[in-house]
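Are you able to produce any protein sequence you like plus the matching backbone structure tokens because I've never seen that pairing?
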Amino acid sequence: MRRRTPPPPSPLPQRDGVDPVRVRLPTGDTWATVRDYLVARLPARAGLIDNMLDEGHIVDATGRPVPWDMAYVPGMFVWFHRDLPDEERVPFTVDVAYRDEHVVVADKPHFLATTPRGSHVAETALARLRRQLGIPTLSAAHRLDRLTAGLVLFTVRPKERGAYQTLFRDRRVAKEYEAVAPYDPALVLPRTVRSRIVKERGVPAAYEVEGEPNAESRVELLEHRNGRARYRLTPSTGQTHQLRVHMSALGVPILGDPLYPVVTGPVAAGDFRRPLQLLARVLEFTDPVTGREHRFVSPRVLRAWPSYEEWAG
């Protein structure tokens, strides 16, 4: 098998903990100039591309500005910094649960995305931690939903990232979540829920379909009070929104969920009053580099337990 050559290192530094954009010119296309390709790829940004070329903000692998008339070379890389969107600051801290020379285990709050995506770029756990800890090489080994709080594993050294990602791919990480949802005395627990979940690009909510199950979750009742309950959720797989979909399918949707059982619309920017009551409580694994046995437990408390009134206010 032919091994793909890794891209050259970025000639541009990070900005606010965010990597520059890297673009590889396709080998199957032919354009007269680099500018022609970039404008064809991003026609709505043609004016911006021209301004960036004028100001020398698009560079090649040596860090030299790309001129307007630079010839298109298939396989060539160029870099530039994106304009950061105006982001509402998430007024909660990212706590560091553990740190060594290989990994950082962070305890992220609700409403903060794990990694840059869409309109969430600098206001992400990754960008914040890079700035906070001074580790520009920090990368996420996996992700949590933006609305979910709890433990996330980050890697320090790029060459070791694959080893930690493989832990999650091969299901060698034990994860436990905690959720607050309605209490249904008729719901028999504990139980293991298996189903096939589909998440379409551009559609906010995932959904279940007939077919071979690709998602499995263990649901246990921890305690209940005044019509609400605290649940332990143990996923064996990692489908998008899996726990939220399974809890909704059981008739006990997680409190604060804007997507399940029905989509109620996006949460307004700056509205942090009703966080999704889902927490990645436990992360346990054997370090593939050091061989150490790790078990981390988040001390965060879900606001809806035990006082729903305080959480909803």
Notes: The chain has a mean pLDDT of 93.
